[in-house]
Amino acid sequence: MTCNYQDISQASRDIINKTNKHPCFSFEAHHKYARMHLPVAPQCNISCNYCNRKFDCVNESRPGVTSEILTPKKALEKFKKVKGKIPNLSVVGIAGPGDALANWESTKESIRLIGQYDPDAIYCISTNGLMLPKYAQQIVELGVKHVTVTVNSLQRNISAKIYKYINYEGEIYTGAAGVDVLITNQLAGIKYLTSNGIMVKVNIVMIKGVNDQHIPEVVKKVKELGAFITNIMPLIPAQGSAFAHYPETNIKEVNKMRKLCEVDMKQMYHCKQCRADAIGLLSDDRSKEFKNDTGKLAVKKRDIV
Ligand code: CLF
Ligand code: SF4
């Protein structure tokens, strides 16, 4: 298929318009536009040492907040109800409670169903990036324009302290072998997405004494790959995780790191580390209003496979 100048400028306008209405990618949008997370992704394919699987993915959420799990059909029902009550809802995000791409069929089907109902919805996916080489093309084809990838480190020795194991296509990898696969896939996936017109945000969990000194290098690299913004987030030690006794990263230190990295790349300062079933403005979670609207839990959240 050929793409003329008009097509390209139309595509650019479309993504700029969508980004201006995205409360996480645009600071200005976060007071005006709401997002809704669909908790359709219960499983995960890696093991972060700051994660306790009883709770939501810490790469995008506060630990200690559990979610209901929905099937794609239930997710559509819930979307209809929420959209009816929150007209400024602009973004439909999939942020766990596990990994969106470790549950690709549910993620894809949820987006497909909602897309048929509301073609103007803006879709957003959050992932650890392990499965991006496999699914990035489908993400593009599905019409998703905003993807978040969590990249905590580019160095094997640092990553080995953060990840216990990687479950890649049914094989368990630990140590250097595991983190090599993860880092390679994250970087290749980001490159593919940005080369295909997707806005990529990179989340980085700042863990004192582990990856904090290395964060500027991560920011420089993802900028080189075409990422739009980085979101440096504090570690909030999750009860029951391997990092439970690590110190919580102070927000002042996080902001200092954001300032330092801002010379290279746009920084997110307004992240709320929200839950996998968050609904509403970032500063006004209304998820409780919509709890159990769609009946009993459709799928039981289970631990990693
Ligand atoms: Fe959700 Fe994430 Fe999309 Fe936003 S959240 S999947 S990019 S629609 Fe936003 Fe929440 Fe921070 Fe995430 S405030 S945790 S950055
Ligand atoms: Fe937990 Fe998986 Fe998210 Fe890591 S990517 S914090 S293991 S749910």
Q: Describe it for me?
A:
This protein is of the alpha/beta class and 305 residues long. The protein has a single domain, classed as TIM Barrel (Alpha-Beta Barrel), CATH 3.20.20.70. It is built from eight helices and eleven strands. Strands 9-8-5-4-3-1-10-11 form an eight-stranded mixed sheet. Strands 2-6-7 form a three-stranded antiparallel sheet. α2 packs across α3 and α4 packs parallel to α6. The longest helix has 21 residues. It is globular, with a radius of gyration of 18 Å. The structure holds FE(8)-S(7) cluster (CLF) and iron/sulfur cluster. FE(8)-S(7) cluster (CLF) binds next to β1, β3 and β4.
What is the CATH-assigned architecture? Alpha-Beta Barrel
User: What oligomeric assembly is this protein in?
Assistant: single chain
Please compute the radius of gyration using only Cα atoms: 18 Å
> What percentage of amino acids are in beta strands?
15-25%
* Shape by Cα distribution: globular
Would you report the number of β strands? 11
- How far is it from the N-terminal to the C-terminal residue, by CA? 40 Å
Number of separate domains: 1
**Low confidence ranges:** 295-305
